[in-house]
């Protein structure tokens, strides 16, 4: 995932200060360190005292960005906040100044020397990346009560006349400010996300936005990523005379689509080698969808390697040519999507790049047309009207579009990674480009069917075999776990799952089987638990028929909820058949349960037949975002589900 995310997330960095003595901190840092602070909970690791950047824009598109940043360490964990960095692109940017200081609780100052400022790659995952960083790591020097600060100046040539500003990440903030100084006659517009609209202070061609006293963002289970919780500002700036624009500007999403199409379309031209390979891949495929699957499997197997060049000139959005990617057998997300486009073109199937935010389904907002909102590239494939799949969207002019991620190695055609479902994404198709909501697969497509057969003995011991068949994203999760972990670690994870329901269980056999073509993962586990049922008063056996736990459990937090709840689309269908011990009759059965809400359904039932207890439960959750004020209904639903899952059966000696 590398659609120039580094440009969008550059840590804006402060004008060169006057010369200071070796043991002296600059005035701005001393003032920040003397700030009067609120009383914070002991769980708050650090507080950002001061975060300010000033962007000075020239008419020729050159921008000088100056920033100051200061943080106070409150706990041992907070020492990790005592790190300063300035990110830059080697092809178009220059760090002109970078300095850092640490003010200890005693008042003494450590000024970091030039040799203590490291220059290193921004991402270790990329084979080559022109994004680098100047960094000072003071975490080992910092102690509780210490204040760390840094300032730097970065000069760059703009690709877009747009920028983003994050007022906060997770720690509380005393003051956060972004100032934009534009040439005479230029103007700026700001769009606020995750906060009430912030009006700028305007003086001529200077704009300034700020927020103060932002509280700590407490992590909550099943909440959106921090990027969709913390306040941020999207800024666009431009001369009043549109013809004088020196860098790319976007009036709407069609503009973004046109620009990206110009970068990507010429790179999707198949050569003879690609043509020959594509035809050989589909030689045995009789239907359109089978042809697409054959090519998709090949592209998924192409190695993911990120090589980022020309970032400061828009290169982070331009894929390498399909011919180069095919010849070298590696590429990043946009390269893999581009290669698949070229191969589909050989067999007469049209397709389009799709720009998306892969790790935050609610990050992209339609109010700000900008490619900087995306960090990943997938593909939309034009298919026939009679082609059916849960991941098809209907474009108003392009028709049936099958959405697919060629980078994800575990999700086949017809499915879409869970964290991409429901998000806004841009279909890059020139004038026909459109921001569309990605499909959400129905819960029944992401099903775990579980059948458990067990024998309960008079002493409370139990032996059992559980068989699971997972489909859709449920299968993808199991597939990823199975392939990414060493076999010993995978076995331990299954043991933890079984013993979380059947305490002290011993695993005898694990038999996993993966069918990628059908997007199905099956597994059989044999185990025994020496004291599963509790023998009471020598005559009662008490046990839970829900012998193994559900995999998709929602941790329920206490107290009021501050953030929305994200529920995923999945389903569980389970039948447990327990052979009852001789000499015992069923004395008490739990009441059947049935719950029905807009976001989830649950049922549980019990039956005694031919010496067996048959327990069934079904749980369906609908992929949705639930506002914090409705959390009580979510909590109540899952508490009742948990109560029904934990309900015991009582057997009595005859």
Question: Topology of this structure?
Answer:
Layout: H1 5-8, H2 27-33, E1 46-57, E2 62-73, E3 83-89, E4 93-103, E5 109-111, E6 118-121, E7 126-129, E8 131-137, E9 147-157, E10 162-166, E11 173-181, E12 186-193, E13 201-203, E14 206-214, E15 232-239, H3 253-264, H4 272-281, H5 288-301, E16 303-304, E17 306-308, H6 322-328, E18 330-331, H7 333-346, E19 351-356, E20 376-382, E21 392-395, E22 399-404, E23 424-427, E24 434-437, E25 447-456, E26 462-471, H8 472-484, H9 487-501, E27 506-515, E28 520-529, E29 534-536, E30 540-543, E31 565-567, E32 570-579, E33 584-588, E34 593-596, E35 600-609, E36 612-621, E37 624-626, H10 631-646, E38 649-653
Parallel strand pairs: 1-11, 7-17, 16-18, 25-32
Antiparallel strand pairs: 1-2, 2-9, 3-8, 4-5, 4-9, 6-8, 10-15, 11-14, 12-15, 13-14, 19-20, 19-23, 20-22, 21-22, 23-24, 25-26, 26-28, 27-28, 29-30, 30-38, 31-37, 32-36, 33-38, 34-35, 35-36
Percent of residues in helical segments? 10-25%
- Ranges with pLDDT <50 over ≥5 residues? 1-17, 308-315
**Over all CA atoms, what is the radius of gyration?**
29 Å
State the helix count.
10
Quaternary form: single chain
| Count of extended strands | 38
Shape: globular
Largest sheet: 8 strands, mixed
Mean pLDDT, nearest integer?
90
Please list the strands of the largest sheet in the order they lie side by side. 5-4-9-2-1-11-14-13
Terminal Cα span: 64 Å
Approximately how much beta-strand content do the residues carry? 35-45%
What is the CATH architecture annotation of the largest domain? Sandwich
The CATH topology annotation of the largest domain reads as Immunoglobulin-like
Helix/strand structural class: alpha+beta
The number of domains is 3
CATH classification, class level of the largest domain: Mainly Beta
């Amino acid at each position: 995932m590398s659609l120039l995310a580094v440009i969008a997330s550059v840590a804006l960095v402060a004008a060169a200060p006057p010369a200071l003595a070796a043991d002296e901190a600059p005035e701005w840092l001393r003032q920040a360190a003397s700030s009067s602070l609120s009383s914070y909970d002991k769980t708050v690791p650090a507080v950002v005292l001061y975060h300010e950047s000033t962007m000075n824009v020239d008419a020729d598109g050159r921008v000088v960005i100056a920033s100051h940043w200061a943080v106070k360490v409150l706990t041992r964990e907070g020492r990790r906040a005592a790190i300063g960095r300035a990110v830059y692109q080697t092809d178009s940017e220059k760090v002109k100044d970078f300095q850092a200081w640490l003010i200890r609780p005693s008042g003494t100052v450590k000024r970091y020397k030039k040799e203590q400022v490291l220059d290193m790659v921004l991402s270790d995952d990329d084979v080559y990346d022109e994004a680098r960083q100047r960094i000072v790591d003071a975490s080992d020097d910092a102690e509780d009560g210490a204040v760390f600060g840094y300032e730097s100046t970065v000069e760059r040539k703009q690709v877009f006349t747009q920028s983003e500003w994050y007022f906060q990440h997770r720690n509380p903030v005393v003051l956060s400010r972004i100032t934009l100084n534009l040439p005479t006659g230029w103007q700026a517009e700001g769009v606020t996300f995750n906060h009430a609209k912030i009006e700028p202070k305007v003086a001529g061609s200077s704009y300034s936005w700020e927020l103060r006293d932002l509280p700590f963002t407490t992590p909550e289970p099943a909440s959106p990523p921090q990027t969709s919780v913390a306040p941020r500002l999207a800024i666009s700036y431009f001369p009043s005379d549109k013809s004088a624009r020196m860098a790319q500007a976007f009036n709407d999403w069609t503009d973004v689509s046109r620009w990206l199409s110009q970068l990507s379309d010429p790179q999707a031209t198949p050569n003879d080698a690609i043509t020959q390979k594509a035809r050989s891949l589909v030689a045995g495929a009789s239907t359109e969808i089978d042809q697409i699957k054959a090519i998709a499997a090949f592209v998924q197997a192409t190695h993911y390697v990120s090589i980022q060049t020309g970032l400061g000139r828009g290169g982070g959005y331009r894929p390498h040519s399909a011919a180069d990617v095919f010849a070298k057998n590696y590429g990043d997300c946009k390269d893999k999507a581009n290669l698949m486009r070229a191969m589909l073109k050989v067999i007469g199937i049209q397709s389009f790049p799709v720009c998306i935010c892969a790790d935050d389904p609610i990050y992209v907002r339609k109010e700000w047309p900008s490619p900087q909102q995306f960090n990943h590239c997938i593909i939309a494939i034009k298919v026939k009207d009679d082609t059916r799949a849960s991941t098809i969207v209907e474009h108003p002019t392009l028709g049936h579009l099958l959405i697919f991620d060629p980078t994800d190695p575990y999700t086949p055609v017809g499915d879409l990674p869970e964290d991409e479902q429901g998000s806004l994404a841009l279909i890059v198709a020139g004038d026909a480009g459109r921001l569309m909501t990605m499909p959400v697969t129905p819960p029944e497509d992401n099903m775990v069917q579980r059948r458990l057969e067990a024998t309960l003995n008079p002493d409370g011991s139990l032996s059992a075999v559980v068989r699971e068949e997972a489909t859709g994203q449920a299968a993808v999760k199991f597939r990823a776990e199975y392939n990414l972990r060493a076999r010993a670690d995978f076995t331990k994870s299954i043991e933890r799952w079984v013993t979380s329901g059947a305490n002290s269980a011993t695993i005898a056999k694990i038999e996993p089987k993966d069918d990628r073509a059908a997007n199905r993962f099956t597994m059989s586990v044999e185990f025994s638990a020496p004291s599963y049922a509790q023998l009471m008063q020598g005559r009662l056996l008490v046990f839970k028929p829900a012998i193994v736990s559900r995999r998709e459990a929602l941790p329920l937090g206490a107290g009021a909820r501050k953030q929305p709840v994200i529920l995923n689309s999945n389903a569980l269908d389970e039948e447990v058949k327990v052979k009852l011990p001789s000499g015992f009759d069923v004395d008490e059965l739990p009441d059947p349960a049935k719950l029905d809400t807009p976001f989830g359904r649950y049922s549980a039932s019990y039956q005694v037949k031919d010496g067996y207890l048959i327990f069934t439960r079904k749980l369906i959750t609908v992929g949705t975002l639930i506002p914090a004020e409705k959390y009580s209904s979510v909590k109540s639903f899952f508490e009742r589900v948990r109560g029904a899952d934990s309900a015991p059966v009582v057997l009595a000696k005859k």
